[in-house]
Input
Amino acid sequence: MSQVKNKIIINLILAFSIFAILAAYFIQYVLGHQPCNLCLIERVPYIFSITIILICLFNQKFEKITLVVLSLTFFIGASLSFYHFGIEQGFFKESLVCDLNESNNALTKEDLLKQLKEVPISCKDVTFKIFSLSLATINIIISLIISAITIKLFLNYEKNK
Output
């Protein structure tokens, strides 16, 4: 029975990861809020977790390893979000990650004018909030919760067999 519970939780993490990616694209493309570079990087753990869980669903021999990988993935996601939150709050300075704009290879005056018209999105500017919390803040909470859940599943894995 507990093995079924593990499968349900892993499937819920998969569903939530898919929802998170779809919500990010909805906010970007439908609502028109352009993400900064750190926001784009914070999507990677969700995409990675979707891939890992789908592989695990087809090959169940590596379920225990999958739990460890998921735990580390979401812990890294929480760390990235914490860094982003720190930049938003002014605790950290923006790094080169925040300024990954295309290199300045404009050779013509038209290209230079085009680049000047494009407004870069700063990592410290919060353009979208839910319940007065930035998406980076929400991502910290969610990533830590999922990481804790996967750690608990891993630690209780042998008991649940």
